[in-house]
Write a structure and sequence with these properties.
This protein is of the alpha+beta class and 303 residues long. 28% of the residues lie in helices and 21% in strands.
Length: 303
């Protein structure tokens, strides 16, 4: 954490201070908030060697409590490192990828019902992990797939795949599976012009069939498939559907609660002999000045 993150800032001069408001509702009892925080810290410590705790494990005494309101209307309690760091300055965790959300976003745990995942462009291939798999079973793994289609894609021998963590244009992170030997600089593999004609025909016929509920309905998914057909079915695809976009909400306001651990004012410092000597010296100087002024009043001609 840099000095800029912790330096006190006047609310009136901060751009993000425009979100300071009274958030409806009441804060939880301090003891309850502190107990929950300490439970989370105990779990976090299990993931790090003690030597790294000062870097990755927060201390309750440094945390400031806020109530935040999201664009969906939900209210949540959050913490920041100090009272001068606003909630929309902090990058909160993505509860699925464990990466950080863009500033000003928060994962809303309220169930708002099903939402269709939007597709976002992949802007960065961050890193990858190779996973080994056994041979695929003889029978189809999916109920909706027939034996003929399964035979075309089935891998009869043990195989490996690379799972990439990718950053999307929305700032969120998702996972993409590729062949082990593929690299981002290779670019996507495309099918032939003849094959793309077949793929387009197969999809259009399936969508037109009234008795085929297994294919995607109109919307993001079908638009995405048509886009990939126009690009000649690139693999890996240049975009990915983002689940995080359906769960996060923008912070629209926040209100201070107070320190997670109550801070007491330091007791006044007891006076020392040195303090007394300074006071006596100032008093003597003041008395001497009074005597000088009295002499001037008694002898105005000498003033």
């Amino acid at each position: 954490m840099s000095a800029a993150d912790t330096a006190p800032v006047d609310d009136q001069t901060r751009e993000s201070a425009r979100l300071l408001k009274r958030v409806p509702g009441r804060a939880r009892p301090q003891k309850e908030a502190l107990r929950e925080f300490e439970e989370g810290v105990a779990q976090l410590r299990q993931h790090y060697d003690p030597v790294f705790w000062p870097l990755f494990v927060p201390e309750a005494k440094n945390m400031f409590r806020w109530r935040v309101e999201l664009e969906c209307g939900c209210k949540h309690e959050v913490y920041t490192h100090g009272e001068d760091k606003y909630p929309d300055d902090r990058r909160f965790p993505d509860l699925i990828s464990q990466c950080r959300l863009p500033s000003g976003e928060f994962w809303c745990t309220t169930d708002h019902g099903p939402a269709q995942k939007p597709y976002r462009d992949i802007v960065e291939w961050v890193d990858r992990k190779v996973t080994e798999f056994p041979a695929d079973p003889v029978e189809p793994e999916y109920d909706w797939m027939d034996a003929e289609d399964w035979a075309k894609i089935r891998k009869p021998k043990p195989h490996s795949s690379a799972f990439w963590r990718v950053k999307l244009s929305c700032g969120h992170y998702e996972q993409v599976c590729t062949d082990v030997d593929w690299k981002p600089e290779d670019g996507p593999k495309l099918v032939s012009e003849e094959r793309i004609v077949e793929i387009r025909r197969d999809f259009e016929e399936s969508w037109a069939a009234a008795d085929n509920p297994g294919w995607p309905e109109k919307g993001f998914e079908r638009d995405h498939i048509r886009k990939m057909i126009d690009l000649r079915w690139p693999r890996p695809e240049p975009e990915r559907d983002c689940f995080t976009c359906t769960q996060v909400r923008r912070i629209t306001g926040y209100q201070r609660i107070g320190w997670l651990v109550t801070r007491t004012r330091p007791a006044p410092r007891p006076s020392t002999n040195l303090d007394r000597e300074k006071i006596e010296a100032r008093l003597a100087a003041a008395e001497a000045e009074v005597q000088r002024l009295r002499k001037q009043l008694d002898n105005p001609g000498n003033a």
